């Protein structure tokens, strides 16, 4: 299994940020023309979001902000409603986004392996939109939030049981711009 | 009684031939009279061709195939002996000039040849050469029953482990990955001429462009009209000029058609917020589209005109009780829609006959999904977990007979090509 494009969850990034200045996922513009002989994908262009180990807010604060931004939310089976218990997670993201106007994020919606493979892409989109709409309602401008869907194609747990399915029905959040200097909300 | 006697005779033949190599295949009779017994005569010097043709004819589900590797007596065709095996037809394969192969069809009851054909065939039976042997098999089927077989076809599918598109010959051989390693993709769809296919790419920036790949050269092109958006479930029009797909946006999933020759003219066919419309597929005349919509709640199967007008429910369902229905595919003869529908929590393959409006379940064991029609409008490839992991199966919708296409890893989302046997 070759997974070169696995998105590094922000929570993990945050954990590693203090020590090693790990690179965030680069944004790659799709190529208009490509060839089959190109072989495995080469590393993308210059990363836009090098995460500094220490900034004006101090490493500990920054790590906490990245962790809050990266926190995943979960959904019930075949549902796209934000659960009440996940609202504080989104409220925190909204506050950080409001405090950092240059910050842009991408929300990716995911589904468990039940349901049709192609419908699950539709469902993932609905789940990403549910979080986007929530953040918009909290005052975040829609243009700062991209959404995408992975359907059931990137499970965090490939097992076929209730526990794994519950983990896989989720939204993930990643920074796509403005994450190099983060200010904590007041 | 007669059936028993024939079976006994066939078993004797099996024992007799066991002294030789592998090779008597005694098929299972489903409906006596529907599948005539057919002997594939030994073909000295054509071992690979003989083995492949015998298997193709078996997989055609049109005959009960009995393949002999060694003739009881060389020389004249022993009509009476083959009749005792239950055969009504015999196929003789002989080398022809210029590397070709001649196939001769015998009527064992009338005790005379019924026809013959000669095709250029690469006799080695490996790699690309297999296609010419499969094409010979398809023409033998045409000689015997008037319609060609579907051996000279390939199936594209998603490798569940590496998330690349793979291709495999109709008989399960000649497996190869066709999209590059390290690029996650989904939903392969053949162009009608079999030269290209379209698929969804998971780009890092969150876009889901449609990529068109030419099989022979490996050249890939992102469709410019899909480069910055999320596009899913592509399908070609029968003339190859248009691609129909679903696009995800803030308004849900809507179906669009676009011109893939001029790379222009994107047209939205379904409207409305809060209704998801996706998984479109054209009718073989290109005038209608079958698709999935959640407009009544769960996912169900609808049709519309190719310009988006005249939208209506196609397959009836009971609101609140019928399970979700997905992945419709229109049969090449235009008569039947295949799709999967959840029954008791597990998807099963169904066909819906358009003239009679009859629904028929084809599977019941395990989870079965994502059907795709063979060009004969009779066989369907689909995904099943009945063996414990996701694998491709081919079912003959006439007899219910099914076989597994062996793939090393889990396989999903199969797409069956049109005939690839004739030179283009």
SSE sequence of chain A, one letter per element:
HEHEHEHEHE
Strands side by side in the biggest sheet of chain A: 2-5-3-4
CATH topology of chain A: 60s Ribosomal Protein L30, Chain: A
Oligomer: heterodimer
* Main structural class of chain B: mainly beta
Number of domains of chain A: 1
How many H/I helices of chain A? 5
Q: Total helix count of chain B? A: 4
CATH class of the largest domain in chain B: Mainly Beta
Distance between the termini of chain B: 50 Å
End-to-end Cα distance of chain A, whole Å, is: 45 Å
CATH superfamily of chain A, by name, is: OmpA-like domain
Q: CATH topology of the largest domain in chain B, what is it called?
A: Neuraminidase
On the 0 to 100 scale, the average pLDDT of chain B is: 89
Q: Any low-confidence stretches of chain A, pLDDT <50, length ≥5?
A: 1-55
| Helix share bin of chain A | 25-40%
Task: Give the name of the CATH architecture of chain A.
Answer: 2-Layer Sandwich
Integer count of domains of chain B: 2
Query: What average pLDDT do the residues of chain A reach?
Result: 79
Q: Would you identify the regions of chain B where 5 or more consecutive residues have pLDDT less than 50?
A: 1-33
């Amino acid at each position: 299994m070759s997974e070169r494009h696995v998105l590094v969850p922000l929570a993990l990034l945050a954990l590693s940020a203090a020590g090693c200045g790990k690179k965030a996922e680069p944004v790659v513009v799709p190529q208009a023309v490509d060839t089959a002989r190109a072989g495995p994908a080469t590393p993308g262009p210059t990363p836009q979001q090098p995460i500094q180990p220490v900034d004006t807010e101090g490493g500990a604060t920054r790590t906490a902000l990245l962790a809050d931004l990266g926190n995943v939310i979960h959904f019930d089976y075949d549902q796209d409603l934000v659960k009440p218990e996940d609202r504080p997670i989104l409220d925190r993201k909204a506050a950080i986004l409001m405090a950092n106007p240059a910050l842009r994020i991408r929300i990716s919606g995911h589904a468990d392996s039940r349901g049709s493979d192609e419908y699950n892409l539709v469902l993932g989109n609905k789940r990403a939109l549910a979080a986007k709409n929530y953040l918009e309602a909290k005052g975040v401008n829609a243009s700062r939030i991209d959404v995408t869907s992975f359907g059931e194609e990137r499970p965090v747990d490939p097992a076929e049981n209730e526990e794994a399915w519950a983990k896989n029905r989720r939204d993930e959040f990643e920074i796509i711009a403005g994450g190099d200097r983060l200010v904590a909300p007041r | 009684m007669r059936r028993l006697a024939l079976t006994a005779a066939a078993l004797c033949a099996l024992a007799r031939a066991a002294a030789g190599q592998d090779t008597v295949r005694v098929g299972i009779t489903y409906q006596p009279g529907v599948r005539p017994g057919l002997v594939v005569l030994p073909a000295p010097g054509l071992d690979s061709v003989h083995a492949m043709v015998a298997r193709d004819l078996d997989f055609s589900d049109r005959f009960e195939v009995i393949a002999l590797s060694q003739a009881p007596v060389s020389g004249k065709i022993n009509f009476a002996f083959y009749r005792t095996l239950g055969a009504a037809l015999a196929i003789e394969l002989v080398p022809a000039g210029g590397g070709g192969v001649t196939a001769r069809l015998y009527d064992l009851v009338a005790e005379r040849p019924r026809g013959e054909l000669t095709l250029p065939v690469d006799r080695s039976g490996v790699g690309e050469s297999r296609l010419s042997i499969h094409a010979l098999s398809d023409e033998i089927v045409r000689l015997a029953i008037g319609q060609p077989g579907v051996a000279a076809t390939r199936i594209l599918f998603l490798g569940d482990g590496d998330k690349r598109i793979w291709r495999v010959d109709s008989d399960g051989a000649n497996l190869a990955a066709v999209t590059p390693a390290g690029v996650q993709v989904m939903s392969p769809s053949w162009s009608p001429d079999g030269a290209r296919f379209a698929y969804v790419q998971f780009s890092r920036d969150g876009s889901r462009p449609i990529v068109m790949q030419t099989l022979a050269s490996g050249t890939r092109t992102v469709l410019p009209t899909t480069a910055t958006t999320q596009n899913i479930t592509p399908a070609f029009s029968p003339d190859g000029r248009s691609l129909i797909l679903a696009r995800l946006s803030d308004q849900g999933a809507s179906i669009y058609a676009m011109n893939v020759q001029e790379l222009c003219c994107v047209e939205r066919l379904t409207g409305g917020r809060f209704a998801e419309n996706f998984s479109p597929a054209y009718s073989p005349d290109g005038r209608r589209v079958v698709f999935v919509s959640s407009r009544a709640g769960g996912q169900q199967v609808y049709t519309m005109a190719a310009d988006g007008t005249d939208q209506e429910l196609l397959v009836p369902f009971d609101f609140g009780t019928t399970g979700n229905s997905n992945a419709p595919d229109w049969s090449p003869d235009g008569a039947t829609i295949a799709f999967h529908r959840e029954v008791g929590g597990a998807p099963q393959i169904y066909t819906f006959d358009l003239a009679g409006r009859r629904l028929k379940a084809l599977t019941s064991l395990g989870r079965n999904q994502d059907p795709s029609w063979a060009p004969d409008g009779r066989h369907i490839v689909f995904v099943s977990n009945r063996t414990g992991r996701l694998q491709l199966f081919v079912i003959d919708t006439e007899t219910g007979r099914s076989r597994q296409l062996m793939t090393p890893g889990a396989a999903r989302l199969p797409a069956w090509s049109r005939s690839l046997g004739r030179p283009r």
